Amino acid sequence: MIVQFEALTKIYESKLRIVAVDGIDLELKQGEIFGLLGPNGAGKTTTISIATTRTLPTSGTVRIDGIDVVQHPAHARRLIGVVPQFNTLDRSLTVYENVYFHCRYFGFSHGEAKARALELLEQFMLSERKSVYPTQLSGGLAQRVQIARAIAHRPKVLFLDEPSAGLDPQSRMAMWSAVQQLRKDGITVLLTTHYMEEADSLSDRVAVIDYGRVLALGSPEKLKQTFGAQTIFNLKLKSLEGLESLIATLQARPDVTSAEATADGLRVIAASSDGLLPELVQAAAGYGLRDLTITEPSLETVFIQLTGRDLRE
Length: 313
Ligand SMILES: Nc1ncnc2c1ncn2[C@@H]1O[C@H](COP(=O)(O)OP(=O)(O)OP(=O)(O)O)[C@@H](O)[C@H]1O
Ligand SMILES: [Mg+2]
Known about the structure:
Blueprint: E1 3-13, E2 17-28, E3 33-37, H1 44-51, E4 59-64, E5 67-68, H2 73-79, E6 80-83, H3 95-105, H4 110-123, H5 139-150, E7 157-161, H6 169-181, E8 188-193, H7 196-202, E9 205-210, E10 213-218, H8 220-226, E11 231-237, H9 243-251, E12 256-262, E13 265-270, H10 276-285, E14 289-295, H11 299-307
Parallel strand pairs: 3-8, 3-9, 6-7, 7-8
Antiparallel strand pairs: 1-2, 1-4, 4-5, 9-10, 11-13, 11-14, 12-13
Helix pairs in contact: 3-4, 3-5, 5-6
């Protein structure tokens, strides 16, 4: 196991006593992309801060490749790369210099640092921007520079705190592919997010956390299965007359969890959409089907089931 969290706890003692991390046990496998999914204040950043030696835990341990981060912070820092929640590029340095000086800080010679910086700018499609200053970069490009810099000293584990916060959809996709490319370098990635699509499409495994605790753990597929994520069909109908008989027919099906009338049609929640869709369309045709939307099972439905609240609340 490349990263081990054991009974990790962080309590902030100020006027209020805040238990930010409440006994987290997690193990990351070499080379996986692991997502910590949770709402604001769940304890994601605090967990990362401890693992990256920026904050001391109240109790418990974090080990990176067997190295205890509290006992041996300098050693641990060589093994990790960090992209914090907020942009920390040095604004007085160019893109190239940001990566170059990072390498120098980690003991690379001038020649090694130069070669590594140029190689990374190429890999992240930033070569054209090498002489640009961070304030001249879009959010998406700045994020890519931060990732390039974070992995410049060849860490084993990369921590990404909310990597797509504030990015437009296109930059988010570019960031996702940059992270996926890290797989071929064998880098283990721990990312935090409160976008369930991000956790879903990027992560091999996800831990759903809230109030500093792990509520569920597994691959996105497994979480959806275990917690019975459902497909939701919303139908808009011209005529609602006699809808009760359709509702009764639907409710009798074993794959339908619920079927109920809405202001302008019908909402059906089902465990699986296989086979149901054509029958639904055929039956609804008799009521003048105007529109149909299907919401696929997602981590969001799982999250709402686990916590009783929305990720964006
Ligand atoms: N330095 C601090 N002093 C006191 N309380 C803190 C401190 N840092 C975080 N907290 C509290 O600890 C809890 C967890 O915060 P944390 O920043 O880890 O959450 P998060 O999951 O990263 O949230 P977000 O999605 O908003 O980034 C919150 O209640 C927060 O207010
Ligand atoms: Mg945070």
